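Example 4.3 (complexes with small molecules)
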Amino acid sequence: MYPEVRLRRTRDKKKMREMVRETSLTPGDFVYPLFVDEKLKKPVESCSMPGVVIHTIDSVPEAAGEARDSGIPAILLFGIPAKKDECGSGSYSKEGIVQRATRAIKDVLDMVVITDLCLCNYTTHGHCGIFDGGKVLNDETLELYGKIAVSQAEAEADIIAPSGMMDGMVKTIREALDESRFKDVLIMSYSIKYCSSFYEPFREVMGSDPSFMGRESYQMDFGNRREAIREVALDVEEGADIIMIKPALPYLDVIKEVRDRFDLPLAAYQVSGEYAMLKGGALNYGKALIETLTSIKRAGSDIIVTYGALDASRALE
Ligand code: PBG
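Answer. The structure with PBG bound is encoded below.
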């Protein structure tokens, strides 16, 4: 055959490879998750996620500032309350841990603060909704989600990220925000959240493992792809501004399909178990991190939530 196609021509020199590279990461792609624990006197390193620090109210603004100085536009806040109860009342308290942390960051920094909205880390039973009569109740839980969203917006959160997988959660939250002068606050919905074993290290940090039953009755079955499309379609209809898929690496096919079918900004969450695998010691963490993040972006994600955001941003400098 003449002329002969030789794909190695474009791979021969570094500059050439850079020129033809189709997908590149920038720190602007990342969201950096941060944990704040009301019980802590000083920050500690997580056992289940080596390298991830659990913060106090006092240490969290500095950590957010580090992210911002590395070019990361947003953080995602998770709060660990000192006290839990049956209905997770700490989640919507004005003096709740996430509300206080959000205000502490917003007082000193100009960056996007996203707040995770869920009940599992505030309830004694560890479920993402109100538990009664052997079930997690959908509509009763929605009422609480509306209250949590408003309390987070009052603390100046820019984006509310509901992760509880209740039906109708985006609509309820949108209505609650609109009725309370928060029309400009965005909703980034965990639209496709699979019932995954990759959340284990996170649950260890949060103390949010359900004390009985799993989360199968509300999180998605990992064998399902068409159902994932239906989840996104509903959230779009209900007013979501950004769609999220979680976990990321085991679900690249789903990311690709959602990208092909919807035009909304798309986020993928590289979760705690994915991070723990990269950090496990068998791989070169830095290189494997960049490779996996690039794959997630290549599959079609605009935004990547990752515990490696700071490491990746520094490596890209
Ligand atoms: C709360 C929530 C979870 C994660 C994010 N929000 C845990 C769960 O559903 O059990 C997991 C994040 C991670 O593993 O990094 N519902």
